[in-house]
Design a protein that fits this description.
single chain; about 350 residues; alpha+beta; nine-stranded mixed β-sheet; seven-stranded mixed β-sheet
């Protein structure tokens, strides 16, 4: 199970979007208004993101589900993300001027998931029924649910309090960032270039963490992208479906207030909708404003605790109560010879 953005490629070889993928994926149309109400670009060279994922899953003989990508009311933002369209940049930049469509778009499963993680904080796992699931980080933090499903599985203060003697030692995670920065393959306007998330009011020193969607462009500033955009990579489009036409949605930018084509996929709007979760501190500066975050990351690590326990009854998704409070399992080891379970627990920064 992946919780903190560590994506592992389940394929021995990368799976690529090829001509076969295009044959299996439904062609779509989209329209957008780049300059004024008199200009509309229309193309039949887009594909649905969900169709792409289906093709990749079929390659492995897997079915997949995602409340985040398949629910018309997204469980985190409330927006409809069921009609996300992707298009090769060469086709996007060539709209209206080229007759030959791109036939191969090279991207591996691992690359796709890394880019989706950088944009939306999405991770994946294969559940107990063999279904491949793609969900937002908060789904994992709430015990595989978008409604708080966290429960205490073991209360060591009553079950085995002797193991807690001398266990109140803890330390802070040494990977706490000072800032987080975000980057698309290309971006031209303020809402799409975005601002960093700044924690300097919470910590004096720290690293700068970079989140890069290195294969994706979402800024539909046509004058800029037609003149300067690379033809490599993909355009990712937030679309609605109306009478069989996938139309790019206009959304007000969180920084400028301007009504923007594809505005929901600008960094400023993505931060506001999907990045208030799992931040390293309860507060920080997001979009230039001090912001209270939701379900912040647990950064306090307790020393290892060892106690006898039946491994068949152990659920790593459940909390463990100690003298420091309710801890989340970061790692666990079981010794079959002794029957002892050793856990490392993490806590919110409340100590």
């Amino acid at each position: 199970m992946l919780v903190d953005g560590n994506v592992v490629d389940i394929f021995i070889k990368p799976v690529y979007i090829t001509d076969i993928t295009y044959t299996n994926a439904t062609r779509t149309y989209f329209a957008t208004i780049p300059v004024d109400n008199d200009v509309t670009y229309t193309s039949d060279r887009g594909r649905l993101l969900n169709d792409l994922i289906t093709v990749m899953m079929n390659t492995c003989g897997l079915q997949w589900e995602s409340e985040f990508l398949k629910n018309p009311v997204n469980p985190i933002s409330g927006f409809d993300l069921t009609h996300i369209v992707y298009m090769q940049k060469s086709d996007f930049i060539g709209m209206g001027t080229t007759t030959d469509r791109a036939t191969k778009g090279l991207i591996s499963f691992n690359q796709l998931m890394q880019n989706l993680n950088s944009i939306f904080q999405l991770n994946w796992f294969i559940d107990d029924t063999g279904i491949f699931r793609i969900e937002h980080i908060n789904y994992f933090k709430l015990n595989l649910s978008y409604i708080d499903n966290t429960v205490v599985g073991i209360d060591l203060t009553t079950y085995y309090p002797v193991c807690l003697i001398g266990s109140n030692e803890y330390e802070y995670n040494d990977e706490i960032p000072l800032k987080e920065q975000f980057k698309f393959m290309e971006a031209y306007t303020l809402d799409f270039t975005g601002l960093e998330i700044d924690y300097s009011d919470c910590v004096d020193t720290g690293s700068v963490v970079n989140h890069s969607a290195e294969l994706i462009t979402t800024d539909l500033d046509f004058e800029s992208i037609f003149a300067n955009g690379s033809k490599d990579g993909f355009a990712l489009l937030h679309c609605s479906l109306d009478a069989g036409v996938y139309e790019v949605v206009k959304t007000a930018g969180k920084l400028t207030g301007a009504l923007l084509n594809n505005g929901h996929f600008a960094w400023a709007n993505l931060h506001d909708a999907y990045w208030k979760y799992n931040r390293p501190f309860p507060t920080g500066v997001m979009n230039g404003v001090m912001t209270v975050f939701v379900n912040p990351k647990k950064i306090v690590e307790q020393r290892d605790i060892q106690f006898p326990f039946c491994i068949e009854n152990f659920n790593p998704n459940e909390l463990i109560t100690t003298s420091l409070g309710n801890g989340t399992v970061k790692s666990a080891q079981y010794a079959f010879k002794t029957g002892n379970l050793t856990v490392k627990l993490i806590y919110n920064d409340f100590i």
